[in-house]
Amino acid sequence: MNNLVKTDKNIMVKRHLFILICISILSTSGHGQEWKTYPLIPEGSTISFPFDEGRHPDESIEWWYTAGHLTSDDTGTDYSFMLTYFYYPAYGYDGFRILNVSNEETGVFYTETAAVNYITMAEDSLNIQATTMGGNAEFWLNKTGNDDLIIPFEYVLSAESGRNILDLEYESLKPPLILGENGYFQQGESSYTYYYSLTKSLVTGTLSIDEMSEPVTGTAWIDRQYGTFNPLTEEDYEWFYLQLSNDMDINIYNLFTRDRKLPDTATYRHMSVYVDTLTQYTTHDFEIERLTFNYMPDSGMCYSNKWRLTSVNDNIDLIITTNHNNSEMQLPFRFFEGSTNISGMVNGEEVTGIGFAELLHSYEKPEIVITYPFSGRWTPERAVAWEITNPDDGRPLYYNLEYSIDEKETFITLDSGLSEPQYLWEEPAIPVGSLCWFRITAYSIDSTLINTIVSENASEYDPNLTPVDKDLTDNSNEFQLYPNPAEDMIFLDLNEKHPYSSYRVFDIYGRTLEDQEIKSTNRIQIGLNNYKKGIYFIGLKYGDELVISKFLVR
Prior knowledge:
Layout: H1 2-29, E1 61-72, E2 78-90, E3 93-103, E4 109-121, E5 127-132, E6 137-144, E7 150-160, E8 164-172, E9 177-178, E10 184-187, E11 191-209, E12 212-227, E13 237-244, E14 249-255, E15 269-276, E16 279-283, E17 287-295, E18 302-311, E19 316-322, E20 328-329, E21 335-346, E22 349-359, E23 368-372, E24 376-378, E25 384-388, E26 398-404, E27 412-418, E28 422-423, E29 435-443, E30 450-454, E31 459-461, H2 470-473, E32 479-482, E33 489-494, E34 502-507, E35 512-517, E36 523-527, E37 534-542, E38 545-553
């Protein structure tokens, strides 16, 4: 316990020093730059300032996001916060606002999502004035001088939840980071977005928690998106911002497809890097390895909480870790949003950093079905095999394989740490005719996500059994299963020369739901009224073999 306390204190000290260094360096180097002028259209950009800081009525959804790290000037206590305004009319409101505050030293997390109506929402500059469902008046504006003219890239905001009040002033210290080269790109399967970030701002003001107000100083990040990509309805993702001690800032979006894949395509992978005032780029050539996972207290959701980010660009090799594991929101849907710390190497130099993670992708424990042997006899000339029915590219799995020949009283390990869902058991040292059960355990890299399945039926060991010829297991011309997905009925059409004698329907747990002999008919009709939504399997028996096909009930 003492070691954990020391580790937490070390993280806090490093973060506090990091913020002070950023403020001292950037507050002197960020002034008087040519970019701090309105109007500004960054070279090659589709985005202009201050115009695109305002609302875009022609776009279906947009949001204004900021998050940051603050330190109390009085007590030295570290805090983090996130504030987002969505324009997304629903249920008689113009949108909603999310406000989170965390005490970084105790881990206490406050969150509130409130429906809002916008009294003012300018289209030519940043001027958001909102009234929450609870009656609070809030605003986020371009800062103005004594002459009432906008001060470029400076802002004021005020927001209040039931227990917290933010009153902050921002001074952007770097030019805008324009994502996707020009600020516009396709995102996900069918959506587009306009996107820019202000990656580092000096923040001053007050933070009130439980009626105690403290003057604070820190750094913040601003994100702006508008278009058709909707985080409420589109693909899940993991998003990060990183502010590094070498003055590099990184914005990362990694989307999952609806079937939990991570395609290596530009629409799903974006890493935009702010190197310095003259250099920024967007690349899709990076990798994220999920190292650990964490269940929420009710076990309803499980998020990754530690990642390794690598990229050949700038030789990036970083470890990103959430500071707390309880930073989950319940509304408007469940997702995780919290501060992170960063360590690693860039271009051969050691760096540290701070940032934020926004996690919409939740991970499930692996569901396993044994595909060989299933029942009857089995031969070691064919690999013991299994299938994961809920695969997830973000959750690579390892497997332990065991067997039992004493009615499942004891299990003996065949192999562990397997990376493929199969194992060729050469020359088993068991008596011919033994009845075997197999037990397979699938688990994530840190064993947080884990599941075990045991053969439903024993299989007789027969080394003389001839394995099914591969041509016979190619069922493309032997049967058709349709419709797939199905709702109330599914059909199995067999050709006249099919070799199958019976069929079985079973669920992802291997439980048999139907077991029927195949008679003279070549069409089998299976009613699904008693089936819940989900994945099922149909196994066609050929001698001692079972050819398996998967279908979905929706």
